[in-house]
């Protein structure tokens, strides 16, 4: 499924920052909540079982506050269960990266490389996202696609 043309999502969110390892703690808790509360089963109108982790509402860039959403793509936002929220994301230009290896370390490594290239990538800071599907559950052979919005 091509998500670069925009999509709707229902899931859970947290406002966080990369400062003082805050995001590591917040995102760990968000993922834990997503799985422990079986959020995926509560989401209606799913168009896939791919789990998306979206980074958006950047205050400025990756060094400032931003919002992370973990959820699933849906066909409509007409029905949003209590405690969850829905959001629509427009079409965007992306540069695609693939994190390969043990998760979450492989994803953390790729984000470090992206941050190092922040200027040359000409990032847009609208929203970026990761796609977790069957390939992301293969131990040290896992793969996660990362899409970074660029100008």
UniProtKB/TrEMBL annotation:
SMART domains per record: AraC_E_bind
Domain of life: Bacteria
Pfam families with a match to the protein in the record: Cass2
Gene3D superfamilies tied to this protein: Regulatory factor, effector binding domain (3.20.80.10)
The AraC effector-binding domain, residue ranges: 1-151
Name of the protein this chain belongs to: Bacterial transcription activator, effector binding domain
Source species of the chain: Chryseobacterium taklimakanense
């Amino acid at each position: 499924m091509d998500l670069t043309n925009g999509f709707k999502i229902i899931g859970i969110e947290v406002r966080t920052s990369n400062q003082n390892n805050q995001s590591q703690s917040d995102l760990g808790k968000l993922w834990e909540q997503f799985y422990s509360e079986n959020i995926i089963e509560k989401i209606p109108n799913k168009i896939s079982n791919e789990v998306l982790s979206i980074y958006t509402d950047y205050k400025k860039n990756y060094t400032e506050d931003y919002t992370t959403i973990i959820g699933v793509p849906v066909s409509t936002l007409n029905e949003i269960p209590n405690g969850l929220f829905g959001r629509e994301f427009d079409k965007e230009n992306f540069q695609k990266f693939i994190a390969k290896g043990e998760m979450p370390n492989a994803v953390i490594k790729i984000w470090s490389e992206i941050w190092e290239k922040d200027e040359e990538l000409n990032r847009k800071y609208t929203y970026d996202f990761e796609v977790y599907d069957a390939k992301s559950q293969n131990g040290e052979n896992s793969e996660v696609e990362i899409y970074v919005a660029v100008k």
